[in-house]
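Reopening: Nuclear pore complex protein still failing for me.
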Amino acid sequence: VVTNLDDSDWTNSLFPSPLSGMVDTSFTEDVSMSALMLKEDDPGEASSLSLFPDFLQSYLRHASTDVFDLLEEYEALCQDKVSMLQKMVLRSAPGQQKSSKTVSITWLLQQEMVTWRLITSLYRDRIHTVLEEDIMMDITMPTESEKAVMEQFFQKGNVVRQSQLVVDWLESIAKDEIGDFSDNIEYYAKSVYWENTLHTLKLRRNQSSGGFSRPLVTELDPDAPIRQKRPLADLDREDDTRLLKNLFNLIRAGMTDEAQRLCKRCGQAWRAATLEGWKLYHDPNINGGGELQAVEGNPHRSVWKVCCWRMAEEEQFNKYERAIYAALSGNLKQLLPVCESWEDTVWAYFRVMVDTLVEQEICSSGLGSEELEELPREFLETNWTLEKVFEELQATESKRVLDATKEHYHLIQKLVILGDLDGLLEEFSDWLGRSTALPAHLLRFMSHLVLFYRSLGMQLKEEVCVDVLKAYISLLVKEKQVDLIAFYVSHLPADMAVSQYAQFLEEVTETEQRKHCLELATQAGLDVAAITKTVVETIRERDTDEFAHHDLTPALDTATTVEDQQKIDVIDWLVFDPAQRAEALKQSNAIMRKFLASKKHDAAKMVFAKVPEDSMREIYRQWEEQGMDTPLPAEDENAIREHLCIRAYLVRSRIFDTEEDSERAHQMTLLRRLCLTMMSFLLLTVLQRTERHQESLRLADIIASDQHRLYEVFSKDELQKFLQKMRESSLLLLDKGLDPLGYEIQP
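Support: Ran it again with your exact input. Result attached.
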């Protein structure tokens, strides 16, 4: 008697789970590292983050190569990560497997992997078809066999060809799950068919007829159980059930040859023969001529197909046996009951669709057989389209409850198969608008899918593409994937790219990191000058009021706040590149103006110190290098003047200082000889604009003083102009209810 095989062990050995095929039984790996990883809250989630830089590197590496090579590398990256995560899950404690995010991330990446596989297959064919349409001539060759009809049909029929690609894709997924079947088949082969029943019958023959015995078949031909309406021995019946399920799984995976091999090894060569009859007939010798060649296929395929259909309808057969012959004959009704997943159901519909389209084409070519008329009329007359498949599929699947993530990928796969890009992007837009955040890896997939479609020149809803990329950029910022952000920002519209990258840079504070981010922006082709200007202006204008009216009495310097320090440090963005020195002056002037208006002199001095001393000389040098003979643009010239003006204001305490020291004497000498007049007018302008009119009158006292004799450096016209400005300040003071010198009027 053959050893009883446990159901689960037997099945699992033949068809290991997706995880079991990836187990590494060697102990050469670092076990301590594995144990350490398992102590983390969710090591798989952290490990999967490497896909973000990996995808970008793949994109850059394949920028100038075939785009489908890139998609195949995307699939390979996902596959490698899935393999690693599966090992991680298997090493974790049993109680942790179901609750771990690692399991869900593994499934997510498996779905992404197979979706890239689908996209590669379908779009490689679609692009090839478009390229071939211009050079192919619509020539119908004489068809003298079913195989020739089918080959010509697949060459010119886009729907049937793409539908077969979908079938191939779904079968490849099932094949991945089966693993290396050939390694297991030898252990479960049987040399004798129904050996337990045979053994029992032999025992009964040799024993007396007395006593009760359960009825069994008395003959062992394949039709005996049905014909005699008697059962097999329990062990044989269980073995048959397992065998039939495994045979169906092999056919589901497109492994018909393996299914036939299994039948033969299990003593059912007759069943292997029944799986052979689907092949289309072709006789290469029909036109005579040269050396005889082997005839292919089944000349009586129509008879075989009708028999398969009838077997699928036979209720006495096991459901998997019925499903096997339903798949071979295109009997959708009997195929669906064993479909346990969305992929199984889609496979059933598309396999039947291809089967029907091929039979319809053969019939229309005149090679159809009368035997096929025995099949139900709806089989040969159904007008299958891709849209019809998914309409019926939706009705079938409405009872199946799926989680949101599964719905996402199944919907993507459906719309990719239909080629409905507008519908796909509408779904993307809907997902982005929901309150529930999308999984990080799904966002990465969506972004790279958008970039793929753009590379093909497909017409897309641009606003949705932008929203997808923006969502992914926000994710990268959140995950601190600093090195990746600039590249994806560069695929946004120019103005939006500037604002998006500037928004990211606002939170970058470390000097070397700032330099690095600007280098990445330059490499990505971003407008660095516009970005840094935007960063500075955004922070400069944050949480600030307009110039306030301050009292005219002297006040202590206001303390520098955290927000003030941000405004001070933001100038650093403009000094990395010497070409931005003019902008650095303009922005620093604006920041210092507001600090001075708020009596934050120390903060203004810190901003001033941020501007390199050679900035004005650098601005003039760059202008001259451009070969410009004209003066600086008015905007740059004004920025320089204002910078000098503010510098004069920030040394005003030295002007008012009465103590003698060598440094002051040296400054006074320089001011007298070079720019005392200009400095006085600039300082006066600053004081008046900041409504410090009383201080402007003090400046007049200093200039008129005989102690310093500063008035001697003024010309007559300059003194008249200066006095006119003094008059303006006095009038403004009178308007405020003060005397002309800025003091309160005594009652």
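The radius of gyration is 42 Å. If you still see a failure, please send the error message rather than a screenshot.
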